[in-house]
């Protein structure tokens, strides 16, 4: 059996490998924009690494903490970000992996929503760049209410497609920071709030709301990821409100859904038949 130290080393190595691959793709993409005449007339120059990538590589090279997600889970999301970035990326939760998510969305907007104010300050002190756009949020649900909330979510008004700010559904997060409602999110990662016991807020409302804002966007698709689907709440709520028919991948404890806009047909069922 591998030791914890060896596992941490392997994860660090693989994370660095992902960043190097991402960096190679970034530099290749950048060089492809230059015209042939520019290539002939210009002298060879060194393309600098973007600061967000540089900071991330340095941070993870010296990190002694195992990331919250496995390399397999991270790679699923990184492939989507490589295809979509720069994009609008929303993350429920703030952690040691936040700098990585920001770097993988280089040039885009990455916003974090975190329930613990003290933890936000801790991350800001250690990694100012990672917490550059982080907002404190409060939840009024409890894991102990999950079964009741699941039943409520299956009935009107929760099945109605409206702006979540106007929703009368108990699961709709109507008091998030203004930016949440003003931006159309291309990618959403639900890795918070906490849900380890009955008193914790759980991810019921975050999962439901992520699905509804994805359907409410004007056009296009939203990629939604839910972590910790080995737990009952994350498993059942993601299947119910993000839909088996929209599921694209599942790797370890991470589930990936691609949800299309429903604005052209607001009376359509939440999930495809």
From TrEMBL:
Subcellular location: Golgi apparatus membrane
Entry's Gene Ontology BP terms: xylan biosynthetic process
Membrane-spanning parts: none
Pfam family name, one: IRX15_IRX15L_GXM
Keyword rRNA processing among UniProt keywords: no
Stretch forming the signal peptide: 1-32
Major localization class: Golgi
Keywords of the record: Membrane, Signal, Transmembrane, Transmembrane helix
Entry keyword Transmembrane helix: yes
Membrane topology: Single-pass membrane protein
One GO CC annotation: Golgi membrane
UniProt-listed InterPro entries: IRX15/GXM/AGM (IPR006514)
PANTHER family: OS11G0490100 PROTEIN
Protein name per its UniProtKB record: Glucuronoxylan 4-O-methyltransferase 2-like
Source species taxonomy: Eukaryota, Viridiplantae, Streptophyta, Embryophyta, Tracheophyta
